Amino acid sequence: MSITKENAIAQPVGTTLERYIMRKQAEFPFATGELSQLLRDIALAGKIVNREVNRAGLTSIIGAMGQQNVQGEAQQKLDVEANIRFIRALTNGGEACAVLSEEEDDIIHTGNCNGKYVVAIDPLDGSSNIDVNISIGTIFSIYRRVSPVGEDATREDFLQGGRRQVAAGYILYGSSTMLVYTTGHGVAGFTYENSLGEFFLSHPSISIPTSGTVFSCNEGYWFDYPQYVRDYLMQCKRQGQSGRYVGSLVADYHRNLLTGGIYLYPPTSKNPSGKLRVLYEAFPLAFLIEQAGGTAESEHGPILDIVATEFHQRTPLFVGSSSMVNLLLTKSVGAVEQEQPVVAGATAAV
């Protein structure tokens, strides 16, 4: 149909997050509406945080609080703001019986003992970047509780393992604000339309390219990286690949998800177990990347196979295009084989 002056003013604006969730509800495990509402609660809190991020410089909430969070990291004012907003939204929504936040030491009980889900969340990843107007984000993971409904949530509800996630995603606060999530049936992305106050479907089926030309890591730690990581990065450079590193996990991950690439946070001497948190950073991003056709690994196997025993457990993370991650793993295996001790009296095979 040709566009005329009359019908040009009535072009559809797209599918809202609300409508998309309703259409896809049948794909959700145990579909009775609770998970749909939970995703809407997260989206609502994301809208509020988006507002606070956009006006941060006008409301004096940029900069550090002058205290540390449970991770021993300098706590930013926006960290506190985002933490409050998400916990409040998840509490008032009534579907989450408990929340585990990067900013808190232990489980936050919402008082909704009949809620069937728990949420692990990093309310504002990379928040120090807000002072210099660089993209930041929220990362979340949702589990169906295993403890009895009607009682308080337990540690076991959060330590089920990455493959028990029923939904996961992130919100990116950048030049545009996007919500990207999966419920185990592919990955969809939504862009926030400020004038209407709605997330609209903009990326209906996100699939990461098998390979890419971008590697993302903090090369300031070059001499602290394992040799196999340095060997891999040198190969990337010889092949003319580009180093792109914002210093905000969600921003770097999002770029590579759309265009292809690899994000690396290897172990270092300071953080031999890695720095990224398993439950509310590595697990949700690994679940999402696998649904998009990519790969997420630690030094010892797939991220989603990690057995988490602590709420704030850390891990190295290599995530992105499958061919790039697999090549890195090949170098890692080769390095381990070279380090194997020679057994006394052993003879070469003939």
TrEMBL record:
<feature type="domain" description="Fructose-1-6-bisphosphatase class 1 C-terminal">
    <location>
        <begin position="208"/>
        <end position="327"/>
    </location>
</feature>
<feature type="binding site">
    <location>
        <position position="281"/>
    </location>
    <ligand>
        <name>Mg(2+) 2</name>
    </ligand>
</feature>
<feature type="binding site">
    <location>
        <position position="245"/>
    </location>
    <ligand>
        <name>substrate</name>
    </ligand>
</feature>
<dbReference type="GO" id="GO:0006002">
    <property type="term" value="P:fructose 6-phosphate metabolic process"/>
</dbReference>
<dbReference type="GO" id="GO:0006000">
    <property type="term" value="P:fructose metabolic process"/>
</dbReference>
<dbReference type="GO" id="GO:0000287">
    <property type="term" value="F:magnesium ion binding"/>
</dbReference>
<comment type="pathway">
    <text>Carbohydrate biosynthesis; Calvin cycle.</text>
</comment>
<dbReference type="GO" id="GO:0005829">
    <property type="term" value="C:cytosol"/>
</dbReference>
<dbReference type="InterPro" id="IPR000146">
    <property type="entry name" value="FBPase_class-1"/>
</dbReference>
<keyword id="KW-0963">Cytoplasm</keyword>
<protein>
    <recommendedName>
        <fullName>Fructose-1,6-bisphosphatase class 1</fullName>
        <ecNumber>3.1.3.11</ecNumber>
    </recommendedName>
</protein>
<feature type="domain" description="Fructose-1-6-bisphosphatase class I N-terminal">
    <location>
        <begin position="16"/>
        <end position="204"/>
    </location>
</feature>
<dbReference type="InterPro" id="IPR028343">
    <property type="entry name" value="FBPtase"/>
</dbReference>
<dbReference type="Pfam" id="PF00316">
    <property type="entry name" value="FBPase"/>
</dbReference>
<feature type="binding site">
    <location>
        <position position="102"/>
    </location>
    <ligand>
        <name>Mg(2+) 1</name>
    </ligand>
</feature>
<feature type="binding site">
    <location>
        <position position="218"/>
    </location>
    <ligand>
        <name>substrate</name>
    </ligand>
</feature>
<dbReference type="GO" id="GO:0030388">
    <property type="term" value="P:fructose 1,6-bisphosphate metabolic process"/>
</dbReference>
<dbReference type="GO" id="GO:0042132">
    <property type="term" value="F:fructose 1,6-bisphosphate 1-phosphatase activity"/>
</dbReference>
<keyword id="KW-0479">Metal-binding</keyword>
<dbReference type="InterPro" id="IPR033391">
    <property type="entry name" value="FBPase_N"/>
</dbReference>
<comment type="similarity">
    <text>Belongs to the FBPase class 1 family.</text>
</comment>
<dbReference type="GO" id="GO:0005986">
    <property type="term" value="P:sucrose biosynthetic process"/>
</dbReference>
<feature type="binding site">
    <location>
        <position position="122"/>
    </location>
    <ligand>
        <name>Mg(2+) 1</name>
    </ligand>
</feature>
<feature type="binding site">
    <location>
        <position position="275"/>
    </location>
    <ligand>
        <name>substrate</name>
    </ligand>
</feature>
<feature type="binding site">
    <location>
        <position position="125"/>
    </location>
    <ligand>
        <name>Mg(2+) 2</name>
    </ligand>
</feature>
<dbReference type="GO" id="GO:0006094">
    <property type="term" value="P:gluconeogenesis"/>
</dbReference>
<keyword id="KW-0119">Carbohydrate metabolism</keyword>
<dbReference type="InterPro" id="IPR020548">
    <property type="entry name" value="Fructose_bisphosphatase_AS"/>
</dbReference>
<feature type="binding site">
    <location>
        <position position="122"/>
    </location>
    <ligand>
        <name>Mg(2+) 2</name>
    </ligand>
</feature>
<feature type="binding site">
    <location>
        <begin position="263"/>
        <end position="265"/>
    </location>
    <ligand>
        <name>substrate</name>
    </ligand>
</feature>
<dbReference type="InterPro" id="IPR044015">
    <property type="entry name" value="FBPase_C_dom"/>
</dbReference>
<keyword id="KW-0378">Hydrolase</keyword>
<comment type="subunit">
    <text>Homotetramer.</text>
</comment>
<keyword id="KW-0460">Magnesium</keyword>
<dbReference type="Pfam" id="PF18913">
    <property type="entry name" value="FBPase_C"/>
</dbReference>
<feature type="binding site">
    <location>
        <begin position="125"/>
        <end position="128"/>
    </location>
    <ligand>
        <name>substrate</name>
    </ligand>
</feature>
<feature type="binding site">
    <location>
        <position position="124"/>
    </location>
    <ligand>
        <name>Mg(2+) 1</name>
    </ligand>
</feature>
